[in-house]
Each structure stands twice: as C-alpha cells, then as structure tokens.
Design goal:
Elements (H helix, E strand, L loop, with lengths): L23 E2 L11 E5 L4 H6 L10 H8 L13 H11 L1 E5 L1 E5 L9 E5 L2 H7 L5 E5 L1 H4 L2 H5 L5 E4 L11 H15 L6
Parallel strand pairs: 2-3, 2-6, 6-7
Antiparallel strand pairs: 1-4, 4-5
Helix pairs in contact: 2-7
Protein name: DNA-deoxyinosine glycosylase
InterPro entries: Hypoxan-DNA_Glyclase, Uracil-DNA_glycosylase-like, Uracil-DNA_glycosylase-like_sf
Keywords: Glycosidase, Hydrolase
C-alpha cells in the first residue's frame, strides 16, 4: 500500500477524485486580542498555500474590499503592501481570518473539488477571543457550516465569496455586503 504522500496510479477510466494523495494543510488563524469580526473562508487556494498567505491570488477581492472599507488608497492600499503589513492592519482594525477547514484533499483551487475535509477547531478559537461580535462566512462552501458557527453563540452572516470564481457578483455589490458585516461587528468603516 502506498504511503499517503505518494500518488496512487490512476486507471484512465478513473476520475481525479479517486487519486490518493496527502491531505493539504491549511493556514493558521490570523487573530489578535480585541478582534471583533471573524471571517471564515473555506480552504486556501493553490496560490495562498504556495505563498502561505490568506487570499494571495491576485484576482481575489478580499484585500481590495478590506482596503476600501478601511479607507486605504494608493500606496496605503492593502494590495500594494507586503503581506505582513496587510495582516497587521487587519488585526489592528479588529479583523480575524481563518478557514472552516484545516485540512482536505483537493485538486486545484475550486471549493467543489474539496474532499475528505477536516474542520478547524472553531469553538476553541471563539473561547480564546471573547471580544468577537460576528462570524462572517466568505462564500458558499464556508456558509455550508453555518449551523456549526451559529451554535457558537455569535451572530453569523453569509457573505459573497471574494474569489475570482465568483464572477456573478461585481466588486461594488460584494463591497456593500461586506460593509454591512464590518458595521455590524463594530469595525470602523471609512470607505
């Protein structure tokens, strides 16, 4: 039997979902004391895993949306800054970032390709951050676990995905939905 890190030969009639591969490991939470809004994605895409950065795909609208809501433009805009600075600004604003899944099997970046997903310890994080006021799911796959997050005792919102795969929602429409979450959580919205 092959070790989990080895790929199992696939018969031409088998689909890619039959391949045996090592589970992908997600990223740790970005959270600081005083966080008021926890944004939960599903699982980092390929670009994010490679970079070890949340929302690293250049067409993902997460950082542009956060930047606009915080009133940061030009050289101050988050997409123009190094990742460490983005995280610092997000944390200072009261934003925490994590994913619903801590590990999974997946080919590519699409949520529809996620298999054998393992949930992150969301209750443990909530206990560690009593200042949280709202949990916001970034996209439909994350929101499928709304029942779990609602049981954590905080208000929960489902937001449109910032992923480039969510082309049916334009930037302004996404921005309006995300603005509501920021305001509900008590984050200072300037943009």
């Amino acid at each position: 039997m092959p070790r989990p890190s080895q790929r199992h030969p696939i018969h031409p009639d088998d689909g890619p979902h039959n391949a045996l591969s090592a589970p992908l490991q997600g990223l740790g939470p970005v959270v600081a004391s005083g966080a008021r809004l926890l944004v939960l994605g599903s699982f980092p895409g390929v670009a994010s895993l490679r970079a070890q950065q949340y929302y690293a795909h250049p067409r993902n609208q997460f950082w542009p949306i956060v930047s606009t809501l915080l009133g940061l433009q030009g050289d101050e805009a988050l997409p123009a800054r190094p990742y460490a600075e983005r995280v610092e600004v997000a944390q200072a604003a009261g934003l925490a970032i994590w994913d619903v899944y801590g590990a999974c099997e997946r080919e590519g970046s699409l949520d529809s390709a996620i298999r054998a997903a393992q949930l992150n310890d969301l209750p443990g994080l909530i206990r560690q951050v009593p200042s949280l006021r709202l949990i916001a799911h970034n996209g439909g796959e994350s929101a499928r676990h709304r029942r779990i997050t609602e049981a954590l005792g905080l208000p929960v919102m489902a937001l449109p995905s910032t992923s480039p795969a969510n082309a049916s929602w334009g930037f302004e429409r996404k921005l309006a939905a995300w603005r509501e979450a920021f305001e509900q959580a008590g984050l200072a919205v300037k943009g």
